[in-house]
Model the fold of this input.
Amino acid sequence: MKIAILGGDGFVGWPTALHLSDKGHDVFILDNLSRRWIDTELGVQSLTPMDSIQERTRIWHQETGRKIHFHLIDLARDYELFKQWLVQEKPDAIIHFAEQRAAPYSMKTDRHKNYTVNNNVNATHNVLNAMVETGVDAHLVHLGTMGVYGYSTIGAAIPEGYLPVGIETLDGTTATQEILYPSNPGSIYHMTKCLDQLIFAFYAKNDGLRVTDLHQGIVWGTHTDQTRKHPQLINRFDYDGDYGTVLNRFLIQAAIDYPLTVHGTGGQTRAFIHIQDSVRCIELALKNPPAAGDKVKIFNQMTETHRVRDLAEMIAKMTGAKVAYLPNPRKEAAENDLIVRNEQFLALGLDPITLQEGLLEEVVDVAKKFAYRVDRSRVPAVSAWTKDIAKTVEKDPEGKRLKSVS
Ligand code: USQ
Done:
């Protein structure tokens, strides 16, 4: 297949490009390199040393003989350029990662809120609009988020996208309908993914576009089979308070002897998936497209759920790290349960990698190897969800923010 990977320079985009190229697909990365610019804006860098996208693809070609093409395109702005690219290349599939993906970054200031909405919603709409306009009949696979559902505890499993409902009609009978599971975003970033869902539903209905939306949990790990092939193919690894995600953050904190930064009581339960499974799921989704005229196909792309404090305690036991319970900079439920259905990927043959499989140590080893690149002052999460919460979050990098250390 000829596959376009929008946002193919990012944390999940890059290993996906390598995985699909390895499987023999013809891969084109389209990216505006915004993630690298945001690193510069924030004054942080990936824990792992990353080469330019051109250098990465050169090494891939050298190691495997396979070519990954790169085009510098901003999907949110370069609409005409993207249309031309579509007409020229006519991809069979388009994988859409080209969105600002960090919840804390999206909540930093009003400017960051505007940027996240403008970038994410425009990029998604431009892609669909251009597909209709050019008549390019590609399967669009979008990386969504489990966060569209919210994390409420109602004692029922979260279905894969749709909820059957009964509505009482005027004549007293019950009409049944299948609706998108009610959206309940917890950040501006998550809100853009909820908006994406409606945009996809419209274009699938109106224009018969074939769309798959993957509601992914929190990704952990760093290496995949392909990024291991050469030191310069290494994936990015975010540890800072804006882009670092919880499990990878705890692992790097343990490696640099920094107390594990649990927000609040750590009673938040979240869904997780290893990066290797993430790229496998994308391949499975590509192999199983919906038909034209079908509703959007939604998968829950996660393999297990964990409570944040349990993860912290487990890593503390494994590494001897201390655990710090901090004031929570986010507005989120202090405690929640989470039961998620994910039978579709399991039925397609996904054999999940779990936390138990020795890969936690691998991440700690990577973190130790590159610990010299860490700026400890960028570890705390200081982006507050509201102005009131901002007053409660102290900004000292170490020690002073700790409410209690166990
Ligand atoms: N948390 C801590 N300590 C930390 C960092 C986070 O306790 O040092 C807590 C947060 O308060 C939150 C939970 O851990 O309750 C998860 O935070 P996160 O930063 O790991 O994940 P999140 O902001 O939800 O976003 C990440 C990705 C996003 C993806 C989402 C999947 O950045 O792109 O969509 O995970 S999900 O969480 O399932 O919605």
Observations:
- The chain has a mean pLDDT of 95.
